[in-house]
Amino acid sequence: MRHDQEFQSIPQVIRRAARRFGDAPALVDGELRLSFRDLEALMVRAVRSALALGVGPGDRVGLCAPNSAEWIVAALGIQGAGGVVVPLNTRFKAGEISYILRRSGAKALFAAASFLGVDFIADLRAADPGLPALDTTVSLLGPRGSAGLSWSEFLHLGGESEERVAHTAIDGLTPDDVSDVMFTSGTTGHPKGVILTHGQSLRAYGWMSEEYTFRASDTFLVIPPFFHCFGYKAGWLASFLHGVTVVPMPVFDAGRALEIIERERVSVLLGPPTIFQDLLHHPDRPARDLTSLRVSMTGGTTVPEPLVRAMKKELSFEIVMSAYGLTESTALVTTTRIGDDEETVARTTGRPIPDVEVRIAEDGDRGVGEILVRGYNVTRGYWDDPGATAEAIDSDGWLHTGDVGRLDADGNLSIVDRKKEMYIVGGFNAYPAEIEKLLLGYEPVAQVAVVGVPDERLGEVGCAFVVPRAGAEIGEADVVAWAREHMANFKVPRHVRFVERLPRNASQKVLKHALRESFGSR
Prior knowledge:
single chain; alpha/beta; Rossmann fold; GMP Synthetase, Chain A, domain 3; 3 domains; 5-stranded mixed β-sheet
């Protein structure tokens, strides 16, 4: 049976897990250790309190905090009351958060009172004192700060109501009900709210976690942020479906991650390539026992084949997968499968998941074109934005992803680049992600990002921002000479800038607009 039909809603997953896995560990967050029965009891308290707070069917509630047990319980409480979670990027500033809360019509806000020196609620009160969401606020992770209620005060709100009130609310949820509105990162304009349902997430990630062989003896260190589907849905939701223990990590630190992997016997670890590169190159790695690691998946356009091999040999993974998705597709479109060779995992993002179609809108460039997706995983639209919805999803139900790719003879999808990242060198289309992947084959290069920059003769040319491997001694001429030997002339970067690190957002995506700006400022 499909997971959306079996479980109906995300809170129902927790109720079922309590029956199936009982006293087995569900959540480990610092000193806090919760069994599945404990987690269900805490969820029911949170649902009762959310109802007492006035959260009802369809109400949007903002949630801004780092990965933590409290984030999970708050989300379950909101959803169990029939509400819609609006996850907020913890790296956003007050103005960006205010825009999302107003745009979504959020009536309440749960937020960390102190994270990386920020009290989100205090900053919002200063920036937008009339914001409706500020009428009802709950602090997470520590002191009350500027919130109306502390976390413990919130959990006591529903103390006078009976547990059956919470269970009745959960029973009323259906797979078609909206579970969350996930706002895009806004790197190409104002963030847009992607509407997703309980059923879409359960169906997609129930299948994915089975394909990836999640099992009740596993422990998953969840590093990708919960405000992104990677940490939330491929992370804790997929885990609880199968009795996997979740260990949330609020801020990634490779040394700390190695320590947790050894202590908690972590077996599942998903994330962007940078996480695995940082673990591989950390000086503590050889001294750590990483033999518990079993399942991994990394996504993105540039996954070097040597990294896949190193993940198996040096980090002990039995299974290494790659996948592709975007928020508008419940963040899952294609994935490799068990048994795929290393070249397929590195070169492609695998085949479409069941009941999802992928095709390429070719532009004449040898099978390369925009990736179109159709299926149950596609959002029903952007929140309160019919114009943007019509632009993204055509009348036949195809989602126009804005990503450029190609399909091979076996149906594996390769991501070439973002449509908007492409630049034109003297009439030739240059795709930065393709060039980056080639440059990562040059041993002295640890990380690289390529952007198009203005050129008087050719219109645009490439500039490669390179993070050299530790101890490597290379100059601009070395990179250009290697590139001329290994790629077509129009792809060769005409400029090279060496940097200590690439600017990234909290989802570990490189901020290419910042790189373009830094090029222009020199």
